[in-house]
Write a structure and sequence with these properties.
The protein has about 350 residues and is mostly helical. It has one domain: A middle domain of Talin 1 (Up-down Bundle). It has 14 helices and four strands.
Length: about 350
């Protein structure tokens, strides 16, 4: 029965996110909002709606480990798994704006989160700060879009939104119904998913944190998986990358920000292992993106394979930690002092190589 609840919850989350994105996108277009703004806000944020629903629902239910683990795990999954799989399908083109602006912002908010987690808690004030940063980021994107060439961006954004064909959703009433219906499905789906995940954790003898970092994180990232892989197959490679980066920014600022506000004065307690390991993996994945993106402004297939390999290393660590395996200490030492530094050194070497070639 718990398995049925889990699968049903996932289906409702994906369907709810789809309704929310379609309804909000069409309504924004109908009232004259720039397609560029819709693409950078409604679409990217809409694919993170399941993370928002699950984390806020988990905070209401007192499952703080699932709330935090869902965000950290989703950000790791988005970069290492989704970009990895998408790049294996086709080398991913990286838009110049993503390199110059969005990736540095993703790195910056990851650092801010690490600083906030030092006391093993996210207070209501810190949640408010994160949410205010999200509002500031959104305002910045809106102002920036006004300077952009709307005519040049409109075709690409409309293609990304995929809202050009269905005439049945052109009415304002239907757009509002899509938004409301999407929100309702997200709430119901999040409760089913969280309750089933807690039951799985108890049955398997693993912690809520591990379930949040793996099963829940992968499940709530299904909209990002579908969007990025579909975009890669269709050749819309910049959309595949932008969707992941934008969603990661929203996960930290929006999801954790709202979760901190919902938690009230008690705040959200954070497991020590998050700040000791998982949050650092999230930051390393974000930092590693920049030099890889800069090399030819694309993610090559072999680089996608590297992303997937490192995600496999990370999941293996979680499994060993859950089982308290004898090899855990050795594996952790190797990850912290060899694998992660080697990743950063390799990324730096990849970045410097074309520059040296150019000088020669």
């Amino acid at each position: 029965m718990n398995l049925l609840y889990f699968v049903t919850g996932l289906m409702l989350l994906v369907l709810g996110a789809r309704f929310l994105v379609d309804g909000a996108s069409r309504l924004a277009l109908a009232i004259g909002v720039s397609p560029l703004v819709i693409g950078l806000t409604v679409v990217a944020f809409g694919t993170s709606a399941p993370e928002m629903a699950v984390s806020v629902g988990a905070v209401w239910g007192g499952q703080y480990d699932i709330a935090v683990g869902n965000v950290v795990g989703s950000n790791i999954f988005n970069v290492l798994f989704i970009l990895g799989v998408s790049a294996l399908i086709v080398p991913l083109f990286v838009n110049r704006q993503i390199i110059r602006q969005e990736v540095p912002i993703m790195m910056g908010v990851s650092v801010i989160l690490l600083v906030m987690l030092r006391d093993l808690a996210i207070s209501m004030v810190e949640g408010g700060v994160l949410f205010l940063l999200l509002i500031g980021y959104t305002v910045f994107v809106v102002v920036q879009s006004r300077r952009a060439n709307k005519a040049a961006s409109e075709g690409a954004e409309l293609a990304a939104l995929n809202v050009g064909e269905a005439r049945w959703a052109d009415s304002r009433l239907m757009q509002v119904l899509l938004i409301v219906g999407g929100l309702v499905l997200l709430v119901i789906g999040s409760r089913l998913l969280v309750n089933a995940s807690v039951a799985f954790a108890k049955a398997l003898g693993v912690s809520d944190l591990v379930v949040g970092l793996t099963i829940v994180a992968a499940g709530t990232s299904l909209p990002e998986v579908a969007t990025s892989i579909t975009a890669a197959i269709k050749g819309e490679r910049d959309i595949a990358v932008g969707n992941v980066v934008g969603s990661n920014v929203f996960n930290i600022l929006g999801v954790l920000g709202m979760s901190g506000l919902v938690a009230g004065t008690a705040g959200i307690t954070v497991a020590p292992s998050i700040i000791a390991f998982d949050a650092w993996v999230m930051l390393v994945a974000a930092v590693a993106c920049l030099p890889i993106f800069l090399t030819g402004r694309e993610i090559a297939r072999w680089e996608g394979g590297v992303f997937l390999t490192f995600y496999g290393f990370y999941v293996a660590y979680l499994i060993l930690a859950t089982e308290q395996h004898d090899a855990l200490a050795t594996y952790t030492f190797a990850m912290i002092y060899f694998v992660i530094p080697l990743t950063l050194i390799t990324a730096l070497a990849i970045y410097l190589r074309p520059r040296r070639s150019g000088r020669s």
